[in-house]
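In this supplementary section we document a worked example of the pipeline. Step one takes a protein sequence of length 284 as its only input; no multiple sequence alignment statistics are reported here. Step two produces a three-dimensional model, which step three serialises into structure tokens for compact storage. The input and output of this example are shown verbatim.
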Amino acid sequence: MQFKQQIVQCLGPSGLHRMAYTEWGARDNPRVLVCVHGLTRNGRDFDALAEAMSGHYRVICPDVVGRGQSGHLRDPAAYAIPQYVADMVTLIARLNVETVHWVGTSMGGLIGMGLAAQEGSPIHKMVLNDVGPVITAESLQRIGTYVGTDPDWATFDEALAFVKFVSEPFGPLTEAQWYHLTESSVVQGSDGRWRFRYDPRIAEPFRAAFADKDVDLWPIYEQIKCPTLVIRGAQSDLLTRDTWQKMASCGPRAKLAEIEGVGHAPMFQSEDQIAVVRDFLLSA
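The serialised model returned by step three reads:
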């Protein structure tokens, strides 16, 4: 496993902030794949996928601001899709490429949709992982039960058990895979206790924006023109089967794939899940 840890400076209403990212593959490869994680996760979620794709692409996996190794925003109200899209434009400019392919899980898919819907978008092919133009109130309520609560644990094993519990919809993973997903998402503080590696204030605009009703983003989806694949966890409570199927008949008329035994969201830790992404992105 070989990657480089990089930093890019981004600008928001309250000033500059750092966005960290991992970089895989040959730096002079003009084919770039950007992989963006979910709400409380980080770019290291994509290590297995990035390693598998690094022979074909220069793979870039950012930690969205407020998560992972990235800095935090001074004003939590800016933890929202417009800021994240702006940061990705800055990142792509840093990479010095005209076009990219995109894999976005949950929030990372919403960021991808926001950028792909723009005229002249650099995204030329996109995978939306268990997210679409309708986000159910049920899933938002479930996520709202833990995001921003800022729990802490006396031992790493306690943190591991908690991650397994709240992330059960990820589906069956090996102990090594759970360990990796936990290790990259928690940090031990100076007091010896373990905490999530994200700013708990990301929950403030999340709760204010999503409240208790479904979120409807069909007008944005309709603007997307690039070839798109939508992957659904068969037990997902965030991307319903009806929404998933409708995505094939409007907007970019997405190709559809479903992964059994998984809810929200597939994590691309296994070869069969990675193959779904690879086959689509490398197809003519």
